[in-house]
Amino acid sequence: MRILQSLGLGAIAVVALAACGGSNKTAATVAASPTTASSATTVASGVATTASTTRSTTAGATGTKVNANSATRAELQAAFEAAGVTNAAQWAREVEEYRPYTADDPTWGRLRKELAKYNIASDVLEKIIATLAL
């Protein structure tokens, strides 16, 4: 199992084992190997659910921040919705479109300029910016 975890396959092995009836546990959780950001698989009542391994989200003090460069459109949209951003799907598309973002623009000036083309409300813009990380 330790070898599988070091290869990032520990969670897959547990899901496969449980799905095949190789485990009599009703709930099992396998933690990620130390080299992955976050990954866990939970098997409950014979149904496997996997939290995907992703380096695009980090927990922030005010909510969830997503990496502007690596988050999927769905992850961007979900984070924007959680932050109360109206038209989250539209803004997720726009943030995705103007990638990549660089660390040498800490105020998100380029993104602010691009989103301003759409007459974005200032409170919506600030919620979007507050939700993004690099």
Task: Please tag this protein with its features.
134 residues; alpha+beta; 2 domains; three-stranded antiparallel beta sheet; disordered N terminus
Q: How confident overall, as mean pLDDT?
A: 71
Strand residues, percent: 15-25%
Computed structural class: alpha+beta
- How many E-type strands? 6
Tell the overall outline.
globular
Reported for the largest beta sheet, the result is: 3 strands, antiparallel
Separation of the first and last Cα atoms = 33 Å
Radius of gyration: 19 Å
Number of helices: 6
What count of structural domains? 2
Order of helices and strands: HHEEEEEHHHHE
Descriptive report:
With 134 residues, this protein is of the alpha+beta class. The protein folds into two domains: 2-51, no CATH class; 57-133, no CATH class. 40% of the residues lie in helices and 19% in strands. It has a three-stranded antiparallel sheet with strand order 1-2-3, with helices on one face. The chain has a three-stranded mixed sheet with strand order 4-5-6. Helix 3 (73-82) crosses helix 4 (88-97). It starts with a helix and ends with a strand. Mean pLDDT is 71; it is low at 1-61.
List the topology elements.
Layout: H1 2-6, H2 10-19, E1 27-30, E2 40-44, E3 47-51, E4 57-60, E5 63-67, H3 73-82, H4 88-97, H5 109-116, H6 122-131, E6 132-133
Helix pairs in contact: 3-4
